[in-house]
Specification:
The protein is an all-alpha fold and about 210 residues long. Helix content is about 80%, strand content about 0%. It starts with 12 loop residues before the first helix and ends with a helix.
């Protein structure tokens, strides 16, 4: 770490904080833009589609909140260990954070897939279309929860190493792909069939490998 440009223990702390914080803020903004893009395109399908994705999206965001356990732990543990010049300790924090991220993600994905209808019914929505589409959306995106929820832990590891730029770039690329491909799958442009809510869910599943 001594000669690394991301060594936050060397040089003025204010500039380091800005360099670390700005990409982190940008990544959070891109994550909100990702969800907003879905809503904009699905709004053209109908209010039931927006409601279905909104209800199912609650459980996606709840999953993100669960994985803050491993993300924050990785950020704090790795940064402190590297600051003390103890790379072996940092590696141990990384292994533990990824292990528990995998366990939490797999358990949450299994619960979401099996009990999707029951989870959607908690909101007591009268529309059968919203309930069925919400359950379908949740089941499809739950297939990618392993990547959706483990990748923030990787972002925490990068942040702990003083590199918040890489997670921001991946997130930005994912948002741009979502912006382009969302209407293709939702409305059935080009060679793709019209898939509506399931198209948005399928794209979320595919992009979970890339940016989440």
């Amino acid at each position: 770490m001594k000669n690394s440009p991301t060594d936050l223990t060397q040089g003025p702390i204010l500039s380091h904080l800005f360099r670390l914080a700005l990409p982190t803020i940008g990544a959070s903004f891109m994550q909100m833009t990702y969800s907003l893009t879905d809503m904009i395109w699905l709004g053209r399908v109908g209010e039931d589609a927006v409601a279905a994705v909104g209800v199912a999206g609650f459980y996606v965001w709840f999953g993100f909140s669960l994985l803050l356990i491993t993300r924050v732990g990785a950020e704090v543990g790795v940064s402190q260990a590297l600051g003390r010049k103890e790379p072996s300790t940092a590696l141990r924090f990384i292994r533990h954070a990824l292990f528990w991220a995998l366990i939490i993600s797999l358990v949450y994905a299994l619960i979401s897939f099996i009990w999707a209808p029951q989870l959607i019914s908690v909101f007591g929505i009268a529309s059968s279309v919203v309930n069925s589409d919400g359950s379908l959306y949740l089941r499809i995106v739950s297939l990618g929860f392993l990547f959706t929820f483990v990748n923030p832990t990787f972002a925490g590891i990068y942040n702990g190493m003083g590199n918040s730029r890489s997670p921001f770039l991946y997130m930005t690329a994912g948002v741009l792909l979502n912006l382009i491909l969302d209407p293709v799958l939702i409305f059935g442009w080009w060679i793709f069939p019209e898939m509506g809510v399931s198209g948005a869910a399928g794209l979320h599943f595919c992009l979970s490998y890339w940016c989440f």
